[in-house]
Specification:
- The N and C termini lie far apart (40 Å).
- The chain is mostly beta strands and 120 residues long.
Length: 120
Amino acid sequence: QVQLVESGGGLVQAGGSLRLSCAASGSIFGIGIMGWYRQAPGKQRELVADITSGGSTNYADSVKGRFSISRDNAKNTVYLQMNSLKPGDTAVYYCKALINKQVAGWNVYWGQGTQVTVSS
């Protein structure tokens, strides 16, 4: 069984910062691309940022210059540092990872989500 467990969400004032973490555990042979998505009420889930196993990153235009994604391959963990937060960043944030379980091959896994609320 593979699990993605997120942490670090919460309530913060506009202009503040939060750091999200997502740790993968279980029978993992390898991890490919990892990313963060978010879904606000009444809206579709959207990509926030992702990072390859080699460290190449990609960001949504709305978060460029404010958010930073990183990963620790030894810990099977991906992070999202969020600075200069805006009320528009309020959403449930989900971690996503492409994981190789060796016997089962490569599959996409999602975390349970963590709420981020930015007050004005």
